[in-house]
Amino acid sequence: MSRVPGWLGRLGAGLSGWGERLERRRAQIESEEGAGGDGAGGDGAGGKDADAVGPGDSPDKASDRSAQESAPGAAPGPVPAVVLPSRPDPASAVPWGMRVAAEAGWRLLVLAGTVWVLMRIISSVQLLVLSFTAALLITAVLQPTVARLTRYGVPRGLATSLTAILGFVVMGLIGWFVTWQVMENIDDLSDQIQDGIDELRDWLLASPFHVTEKQINDIAQNLREAISENTDTITSAGLEGVTVIVEALTGILLTMFSTLFLLYDGKRIWQWTLKLVPEAARPGIAAAGPRAWQTLTAYVRGTVIVALIDAIFIGLGIYFLDVPMAVPLAVFIFLFAFIPLVGAVVSGALAVVVALVTQGVFTAIMTLAVVLAVQQIEGHVLQPFILGRAVRVHPLAVVLSVAAGGMVAGIGGAVVAVPLVAVTNTVVGSLRAYARERAG
User: Which of 26, 37, 156, 170 is 20 to 30 A removed from 341 (C-alpha atoms)?
Assistant: First the structure.
């Protein structure tokens, strides 16, 4: 009997088995879709899997099941999902304190970089900045005179010219008077200083400090050697003095021109400046500007009055104590009064030193008493009454601002540091109040 029909029969039986298994698989997938995925491989009522082998199933069915699972072309069954542990957002994983410190840190770095760039720019145009600032301070003193003359019917150009000329003439006369007094009394002062040094030497020898003549001679010898060793430095400083004079004259001219334009056209310059501000911030800046100008004007006028009172009373005191050059010393006291705290100490110390080397220890002590008394009256009576609360700055802020201004721009920086701090304080307070009004 031929073997071909048997082979064909087995092939047909195999194909029939494959067809049945495919039908069962399709029925299983349809039942899973219809049940909404309830139970892995089961129907909606939790019935048995179509291919599951029950207790009463035949061995053929079990073999068909294993064959289906091992068949290379069989459709894969459902793969269980792998649940991975969830990871938090990196920002939420950082501690709150560290996040706050980082936020504040990079903002501080930006501010520090901005301030550093501004300071570099100011240092490169230091003469221009100081000249314009001095013009602002002078304008704050002279502007009320221009306004008063304008109210009386004087044309603004003429009022500006008269006020500026009068102001600069007065300042020039003060400088000339101080120079004249120093030149007139320099010879007498040098003789008095020499006599005072001799008296101080005799007093030290007779004092209970046990100072010997050899020690005094050694100190004098050291001073002479220091002067001779630094002759080159002194000479170079003298040569640099020519450059300083040229820069001073340039600064004076810039200050005069700036003062003239500020007195004549100050409002229009301010309106033009407002156009450079973003439109959203323009109302707040426009409200803060007049308040800042009021603060600056009050500070300058009050400082002039206080400095004038200090100069008059201390000058009268050292005049009646027969201290030489009392009038030039009084002018120095007036000028140094524009440097808060530090200027009073320096000018008072200068008066005491002149009294010590010219009139002796007792006169120096009396001069010191006069200086301290006037300065105490100034600090506790004059400044609170004249300057008022509008320009009150904490003493620590005054000392730090004067020191910073002196390190950045010398004496000019020390003079403008405190009014700059006072104006900045007023502007910040005004902007904060404006923000609260808008929020309310």
Answer: 170
